[in-house]
């Protein structure tokens, strides 16, 4: 593993970096590329069955990664590539901005979900929590792909602190207890790294090291601990010394790193030899020279502040005949009895009502010796009579601050003990007044109180009675991971499929959504002639229909593990009773799903090993008999292992012919097919991957020939395309969603322009233009849904409310006529500026909190002058992305 150790003078933002290269005795993962991991993992699940724990996490990982690997499947430095792309876009447009102005292309505002009406109120994945040293209402939440969030009122309202960093997957956050404006975040999503099969890929969210902010999250800088993504480092935890906030520890793979100078320099102080990963680290309450650490089999103890460690206790091995062989451990301590140390170890050994696990152990002498308290029932089982274990994915434990006998454990669900682990009881997640989301990643008792917080796949929850009852504190967190979405023409209704949190429906202008279907939600559609008719899909090709606006759903087609993780769904644009749904073949219904016919894109069956990673469908609105099917395929029998193909039907999907694709080399992960609504011969296609200049192509003759329209698009995956139906005036009005934002072009432009004003740096997975209201919407993978007026040299009117003006980030908006606002501008980094040709109306409800560090300006003038005035000394062309707060400075 390579570790970059940097010396940095924060005041001057100058970096002197030394690259220290050493070879650990325990490899982070097997050498090779992602295709090797994929084969190993899929063979594993063929053996144990796809109904076992870990399968769903793996398929998410496979879907995400296969669009973001190199030409031969090699793993890439995605974090660095995203950063470079953001920097290049910013520098390109800095030179063209008039002096003293910022770009104003796009006017994106969040439309939610800020809360979800469901049994568990799940909003998105949260990994860990940290606390302000003196104010119990100030919390910091590290999320799986939505960055870092802060609340000042106990979780009722949240603000984002990392709008612009390229790796918004976070494992840990630490707050300096002498100066809470100094924050540290550990990047990556270690829990998401699949343990079974040793893939260790983790949704491509490897750790890239530790970032630091000295201004409360306005800007972030790299510290001396940096990991190249190609080293595939799974970093599980970061903790801070309770007395000296310049001392921090980070567990990364099989190594422990320590800094004594606030992250400037780090040293590797411990490394396992043959016993796999390190998982947890704690400091003895009141005696910080005593540090505890656990790995796959061993418990470690240090009495010199974490410089050296002994191994006083070794866990028994996982039984050879155990169904679940991946082991993980955790530690918990309590100020109620500082000499006590709890050690818990997974996995589940046997399943069912009599489930057993490796054990909950207790030491009464600061870790010198341990006693087995219990090994049944398993807190990692799919309780109470389940048949799977996910201890490598969701694993946590905490001990009460006031009673060291009271232990709470989290796996898929929550368990607790009131007698030091002698007996363990199950806490159901949806009983009366007991509401929490499954998959528990972190359990922490808040210092100085006995409030218990749980970070879950559905967000943040708390309990004031040591885990008996739970209440959500998701406030207005916007961390939902969307795969796809669908909107009515006016946008009054939207539905979207999310990771871990089902399919959710939005109505009217509220940012509160309602869950209408569980599991992982995928593609969906709304009948434009009857908004009560909705279609939603689940992973691996399950299809459901509602005829009452989502109040109830009927299963039309069942899922199958051989089908793509995300199966595309599309309604005929002129006859919505005609449905196209691709799984391993094209399923078509002409009667709203009552019956189906199937057509195959091949004339002879492909090899049995061929796997369709993803697919996309395009239908010509001008001639609905013309249907396109794009496939992204992995086939080990071909010399080119991962490739794309495009098929075309001219008879409504009954028969298919292989269509041409652009003639370029390298990975060709086709992501979208879009046709011009006004011209059946014009087709656009997009590609993922990291091949410079191979992003978007256009054909004007139905796919016979292609023109490269990639222009200056950044070298990141392009995930989706949306064509604006403006009857060719101008032609080629197209938006694309990428891994760092949205871009626009038309035939009157020579190239693409950024269209991301107000949008975080986040993967945009789906786009839809709402023609009747001249708006465009985006579904993102980690930050929910956003909305903007469509491209215009000068929008006539813009209206902001407390619902759609996101807090605490910069906005630069200009209108030819008027801007009307009741927004709430608050927090350091909120630099908001309005410019309008006629008037700006700040109506009752508008708040500009100068004492919070926010700044606001307004001016009258034409938007044809090139932008809006900069405020408070902000420099045009500075290293920002649309002026976003929370950007990484390198």
Write a concise keyword list for the protein shown above.
single chain; five-stranded mixed sheet; mainly beta; 890 residues
Structure description:
- It is a single chain.
- A hairpin with a 7-residue loop joins strand 42 (542-546) and strand 43 (554-557).
- Helix content is 5%, strand content 39%.
- The protein is built from 3 helices and 72 strands.
- Strands 5-39-38-37-36 form a 5-stranded mixed sheet, with no helix packed on it. The protein has a 5-stranded mixed sheet with strand order 10-11-12-13-72, with no helix packed on it. The chain has a 4-stranded antiparallel sheet with strand order 4-62-61-60, with no helix packed on it.
- Mean pLDDT is 85; it is low at 1-31, 97-104, 196-203, 803-810 and 870-885.
- Helix 1 runs antiparallel to helix 2.
- The chain is mainly β and 890 residues long.
Residues in helices, as a percent range: under 10%
Strand content: 35-45%
Number of helices: 3
- Overall, the morphology is globular
Class computed from helices, strands and strand pairing? mainly beta
Biggest sheet record: 5 strands, mixed
The mean pLDDT is: 85
Strand order of the largest sheet: 5-39-38-37-36
How big is the Rg? 27 Å
| End-to-end gap | 22 Å
Low-confidence stretches: 1-31, 97-104, 196-203, 803-810, 870-885
Tell me the number of strands: 72
């Amino acid at each position: 593993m390579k570790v970059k150790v940097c010396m940095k003078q924060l005041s001057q933002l100058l970096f002197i970096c030394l690259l220290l290269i050493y070879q650990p005795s325990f490899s982070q993962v097997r050498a090779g590329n992602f295709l090797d991991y994929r084969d190993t993992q899929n063979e594993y699940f063929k053996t144990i069955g796809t109904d076992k724990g870990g399968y769903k996490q793996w398929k998410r990982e496979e879907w995400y990664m296969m669009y973001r690997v190199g030409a031969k499947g090699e793993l890439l430095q995605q974090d660095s590539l995203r950063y470079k792309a953001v920097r290049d876009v910013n520098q390109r447009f800095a030179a063209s901005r008039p002096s003293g102005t910022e770009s104003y292309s796009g006017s994106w505002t969040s439309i939610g979900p800020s809360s979800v009406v469901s049994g568990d109120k799940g909003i998105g994945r949260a990994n860990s929590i940290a606390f302000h040293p003196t104010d119990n209402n100030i919390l910091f939440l590290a999320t799986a792909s939505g960055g870092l969030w802060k609340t000042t009122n106990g979780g009722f309202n949240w603000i984002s602190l990392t709008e612009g960093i390229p790796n918004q997957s976070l494992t840990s956050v630490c707050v300096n207890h002498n100066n809470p404006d100094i924050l540290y975040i550990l990047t990556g999503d270690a829990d998401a790294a699949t343990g079974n099969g040793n893939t260790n890929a983790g949704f491509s969210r490897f750790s890239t090291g530790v970032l630091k902010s000295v201004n409360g999250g306005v800007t972030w800088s790299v510290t001396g601990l940096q990991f190249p993504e190609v080293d595939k480092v799974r970093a599980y935890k970061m903790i801070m010394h309770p007395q000296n906030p310049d001392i921090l520890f980070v567990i990364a793979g099989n190594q422990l790193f320590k800094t004594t100078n606030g992250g400037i320099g780090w040293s590797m102080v411990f490394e396992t030899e043959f016993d796999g990963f390190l998982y947890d680290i704690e400091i003895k309450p009141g005696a910080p020279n005593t540090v505890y650490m656990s790995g796959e089999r061993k418990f470690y103890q240090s009495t010199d502040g974490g410089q050296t460690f002994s191994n006083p206790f070794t866990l028994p091995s996982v039984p050879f005949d155990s169904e679940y062989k991946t082991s993980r451990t955790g530690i918990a301590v309590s100020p109620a009895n500082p000499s006590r140390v709890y050690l818990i170890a997974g996995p589940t050994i046997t399943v069912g009502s009599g489930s057993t696990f490796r054990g909950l152990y207790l030491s009464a002498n600061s870790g010198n010796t341990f006693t087995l308290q219990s090994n049944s029932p398993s807190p990692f089982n799919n309780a109470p009579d389940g048949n799977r274990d996910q201890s490598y994915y969701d694993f946590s434990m905490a001990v009460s601050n006031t009673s060291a006998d009271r232990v709470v454990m989290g796996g898929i669900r929550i368990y607790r003990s009131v007698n030091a682990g002698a007996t363990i009881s199950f806490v159901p997640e949806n009983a009366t007044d007991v509401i929490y989301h499954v998959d528990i990643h972190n359990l922490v008792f808040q210092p100085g109180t006995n409030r218990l917080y749980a970070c879950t796949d559905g967000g943040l929850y708390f309990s004031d009675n040591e885990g008996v009852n739970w209440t959500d504190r998701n406030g207005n967190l916007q961390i939902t991971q969307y795969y796809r979405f669908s909107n009515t023409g006016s946008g009054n209704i939207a539905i979207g499929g999310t990771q871990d949190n089902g399919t959710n429906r939005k109505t009217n202008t509220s940012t509160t959504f309602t869950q209408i279907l569980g599991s992982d939600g995928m593609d969906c559609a709304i009948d434009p002639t009857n908004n009560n008719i909705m279609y939603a899909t689940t992973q691996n090709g399950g299809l459901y229909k509602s005829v009452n606006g989502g109040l109830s759903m009927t299963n039309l087609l069942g899922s199958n593990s051989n089908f793509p993780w995300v199966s595309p769904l599309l309604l005929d644009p002129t006859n919505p009773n005609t449905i196209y749904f691709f799984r391993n073949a094209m399923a078509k219904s002409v009667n709203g799903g009552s019956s189906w016919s199937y057509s195959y894109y091949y004339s002879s069956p492909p090899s049995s090993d061929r796997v369709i990673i993803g697919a996309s469908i395009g239908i010509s609105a001008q001639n609905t008999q013309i249907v396109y099917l794009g496939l992204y395929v992995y086939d080990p029998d071909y010399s080119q292992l991962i490739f794309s193909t495009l098929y075309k039907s001219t008879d409504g999907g009954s028969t298919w012919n292989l269509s041409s694709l652009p003639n370029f080399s390298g990975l060709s992960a086709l992501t979208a097919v879009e046709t011009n609504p006004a011209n059946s011969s014009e087709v656009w296609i997009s590609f993922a991957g990291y091949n410079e200049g191979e992003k978007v192509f256009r054909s004007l003759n139905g796919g016979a020939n292609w023109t490269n329209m990639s222009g200056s698009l950044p070298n990141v995956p392009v995930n989706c395309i949306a064509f604006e139906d403006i009857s060719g005036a101008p032609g080629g009005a197209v938006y694309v969603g990428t891994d760092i934002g949205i871009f626009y072009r038309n035939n009157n432009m020579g190239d693409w322009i950024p269209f991301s004003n107000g949008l975080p740096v986040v993967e945009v997975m789906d786009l839809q233009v709402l023609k009747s209201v001249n708006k465009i919407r985006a579904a993102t993978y980690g930050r929910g849904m956003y909305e903007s007026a469509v491209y215009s040299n000068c929008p006539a009117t813009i209206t902001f409310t407390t619902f759609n003006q996101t807090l605490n980030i910069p906005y630069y908006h200009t209108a030819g006529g008027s801007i009307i606002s009741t927004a709430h501008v608050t927090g350091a980094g909120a630099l908001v500026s309005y410019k309008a040709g006629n008037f700006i109306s700040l109506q009752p409800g508008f708040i500009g909190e100068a004492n919070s560090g926010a700044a606001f300006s307004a001016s009258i003038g034409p938007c044809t002058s090139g932008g809006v005035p900069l405020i408070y000394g902000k420099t045009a062309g500075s290293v920002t992305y649309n002026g976003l707060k929370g950007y990484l400075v390198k």
